[in-house]
Amino acid sequence: MVPGMTTHGGHEPVFCTVVPPHVLDKLAQAEDPALAGPARKTLQRDAFERTQRRLTTVIGAPSIAAPAGAEAGKPHRTIYDARHRTDLPGKKVRAEGEEPGKDATVNRAYAGLGATFELFLAAYERDSIDANGLPLDATVHYEEDYNNAFWNGEQMVFGDGDGEIFLDFTIPIDVIGHELTHGVTQYTANLTYFGQSGALNESMSDVFGSLIKQHTLGQTAAEADWLIGAGLLAPRVTGSALRSMKAPGTAYDDDVLGKDPQPATMDDFVRTGRDNGGVHINSGIPNHAFFIVATTLGGHAWERAGQIWYDVLTGGQLKKDALFTDFAALTVAAAKDRYQDGEELQAVLKAWEQVGVRTA
After folding, report:
1. In 70-148, where do the E strands start and end?
2. What is the pLDDT at residue 8?
3. CB of 239 within 8 A of CB of 233?
4. pLDDT tens digits along 224-253
5. Which parts of 70-172 fold into alpha helices (H)?
6. Which helix (H) or strand (E) holds 16?
7. What is the pLDDT of residue 344?
8. Is 121 helix (H, G, I), strand (E, B) or coil?
9. Residues with catalytic annotation?
10. Are 166 and 49 in contact (CB under 8 A)?
11. Of 211, 199, 226, 206, which is closest to residue 325 (Cα–Cα)?
12. What gap in Å lies between CA 291 and CA 278, rounded to an integer?
């Protein structure tokens, strides 16, 4: 097994956002125009970007090489400012190695790209998103009142939020890690962004987004909050984050946003045609399985639990259209392969049993 190898004959970029469509749909129906307006505009912008991404997929995404003279094993970050427009990438405002400026959003984006690079390199010996030194580009201050952040197959893009429901999308480092991990998945298992494989795609981003936050803070599995997007919701919102891996379905319960719909087990699996077959909803099930493995094993979650998940993502056996049962079986095999019949294997078996996913 070659770490980080692409196994499915090329990569198809997909357009992946951190705020699910069902959340924005709910907001768009709010009676208050200050809440509904930005949500509707965000949905329209996301639909446009998604279409653009499909066109790029058809004609082929450009290969982005590391710049001449770039040092292997070091990040190459560039931050751009869209100045509240939608032309990408925007004006270059910070390059690799430059000192922080006055714009806190630029500085957070730069630091988040670096933290993501560092986790994958330090824990898994992966040199950037593609394992080959891919430059990390990000655009901040995208559009006006834009309530999302996304990976478009080539770069990161961050909105500033509307200030009413969502704050600046560079605030939670796990949101940055989440979106960049979509790039890692794109270059490895390339999981189809629909149904259970799409939920696995989303879950991979939540898992490694959380690990990037934990790695940056030096937290153990017991110390981590296991929330995705803590700090992103504005003070008026009744909620703590976008998602909870520890307790799916409890991240928010708000008059405007509604209640977090994520299930923790297969008993509550949601069947829907929306959100690409519920990719942001049913990801709660594999998310919770990972949480159980990590907290059962204890210590730093990126070490053993994260290693097993990374082995499956990059190992070449995970099919594009994998179901939860396929993924679970591969985690069992990966745990056996790396740790034999130790506590790691028992933790993996226990976790999938608890969330109701068969492993054989």
Report:
1. 77-81, 91-95, 136-140
2. 38
3. yes
4. 999 999 999 999 999 999 999 999 999 999
5. 104-124
6. strand 16-17
7. 98
8. helix
9. 179, 280
10. no
11. 199
12. 20
